[in-house]
UniProtKB/TrEMBL annotation:
Keywords: Signal
Organism: Massilia cavernae
Protein name stated in the entry: DUF4440 domain-containing protein
Upper classification of the organism: Bacteria, Pseudomonadati, Pseudomonadota, Betaproteobacteria, Burkholderiales
Signal peptide interval: 1-17
Length: 106
């Protein structure tokens, strides 16, 4: 009985220890967005990276003006998996990771 209780108490720690690092999560995200012509990104991989209630925020330029977007992660996941006519390759120019206890910004 004592062993079962100990294993039950350690289970959350094991799950936390096996979680990907912020660096690995960012790499998985960029890799899952890329795809060939007529294909979509890896929606299953993206699904594993986001909390069900997450929001995805982005910024880009359209006709020379900055455009801000916000959408539910579920909508973002569907969009990633949607096949596109043209190929898309996502790459990073630089990466900075800042850790704050159990949280990080990448």
């Amino acid at each position: 009985m004592k062993i079962a209780i100990l294993l039950f108490a350690l289970a959350p720690m094991v799950a936390f220890a096996s979680a990907p690092s912020p660096e690995a999560a960012a790499s998985d995200l960029w890799r899952s967005l890329s795809h060939g012509p007529g294909q979509g990104g890896d929606g299953a991989a993206v699904r594993g990276l986001f909390h069900a209630d997450a929001m995805v925020y982005g910024g880009r330029y359209k006709e020379g003006a900055p455009v801000f977007s916000a959408q539910k992660a579920s909508e973002f996941m569907e969009s990633v998996a949607t096949p596109r006519e043209n190929a898309f390759y996502e790459c990073e120019v630089t990466r900075e990771v800042r850790r704050y206890d159990r949280f990080a910004t990448v």
